[in-house]
Design brief:
306 residues, alpha+beta, Sulfite Oxidase, Chain A, domain 2, 13 strands, binds ligand MTE
């Protein structure tokens, strides 16, 4: 990553959720009205059902989830996305699904929302930089979307791309990453029941800084695999190139499974700081999702395929 200092505790860490929501609703209305921002997304409530895959761990306060972000399209500092992402227009939105499938096409967001009932998935998110959060996502299994387009037997991998729009994504005016942001999964990882496309968090549509209107969430992998604001999905026979691998293949592998026993070349991955907590905690193999995912990597040397 383009590393900055670890965060210090802020007032945000102690703001109760209800107080935050009131403040946020007030601000959202005020800012949108005051500036006349056309297309500025205001959070809208979503209907969803709970999921058996959710953790019961304490959720990271909404204020932190929406103000401490990595979204390099909007800048490299943690508070840049919250400051700059309001300019992104997320309506209309389409995802181009192409490659090895019977039903390729350009699917609009409203149609994609009908793919499967929305669920709440309270997942741990472990960033490769050594911090973590617990986020109540709202989304649906990626497997359902892939099923809709009927993959062929040649669909061995899935690649994803974020929107390219430098006039609204100011980070894209600088070439510190090779835009657009790209990620990829093996097909079995993509259709694993834990893998979701998220469209909301904390019961509301996604804030822009968290990847509105739709992003991937793969909870057993480092956070950078969970690509935001997706506009393209491609089913393919060969392993796709990913943004971080292209930047530095020695530091960022294709798999990027959370693994406390394989260190990043520049720092240990053995423990992490849960945002809002003081004492570091041990990082769990596969971020604690081993029961659901370890079988996919049986026989694979996780040191080599990091
Ligand atoms: N997706 C895009 N398009 N651009 C990014 O810079 N950052 C990644 C990932 N998805 C990133 C992205 C990283 S490093 C992390 S840790 C997570 O998003 C952070 O997600 P969050 O801000 O919703 O917590």
């Amino acid at each position: 990553m383009l590393i900055r200092n670890a965060p210090d505790l802020t007032e945000n860490d102690v703001t109760p959720h209800e107080v935050y929501l009131q403040r946020r609703q007030f601000m959202a209305g005020g800012i949108a009205a005051g500036l006349g921002l056309a297309g500025a997304a205001t959070a809208a409530p979503l209907a969803f059902k709970p999921s058996k895959w959710s953790t019961t761990e304490k959720r990271t306060p909404l204020d932190d989830v929406t103000s401490y972000n990595n979204f390099y399209e909007f800048g490299v500092d943690k508070d840049d996305p919250a400051k700059n992402a309001g300019r992104l227009k997320t309506q209309p939105w389409t995802i181009q699904i192409e490659g090895e499938c019977a039903k390729p096409g350009r699917y609009n967001f409203e149609d994609i929302l009908k793919t499967a009932p929305l669920e709440e998935r309270i997942y741990r998110l472990r960033c490769v930089e050594g911090w973590s959060m617990v986020i109540p996502w709202i989304g649906f299994p990626l497997a359902a979307l892939i099923g809709r387009v009927q993959p062929t037997s040649k669909a061995k991998f899935v690649s994803f791309e974020t929107l390219m729009r430098p006039d609204q994504m100011i980070g894209q005016r600088s070439p510190y990453l090779d835009w657009p942001y790209r990620e990829g999964l093996r097909i079995d990882e993509a259709v694993n029941p834990l893998t979701i496309m998220a469209v909301g968090l904390y019961g509301q549509t996604l804030p822009n800084q968290n990847g509105a209107p739709i992003r991937l969430v793969v909870p057993w992998k480092y956070g950078f695999k969970s690509i935001k604001s997706v506009v393209k999905i491609r089913l393919q026979e060969t392993q796709p190139k990913t943004t971080w691998q292209m930047l530095n293949a020695r530091e960022y592998g294709f798999y990027s499974n959370v693994n406390p026993t394989v260190d990043h070349p520049r720092w240990s991955q053995a423990n992490e700081r849960r945002i809002g907590e003081f004492r570091r905690r041990e990082t769990l193999m596969f971020n604690g999702y081993g029961d659901q995912v370890a079988g996919m990597y049986r026989g694979l040397d996780l040191r080599k395929f990091y």
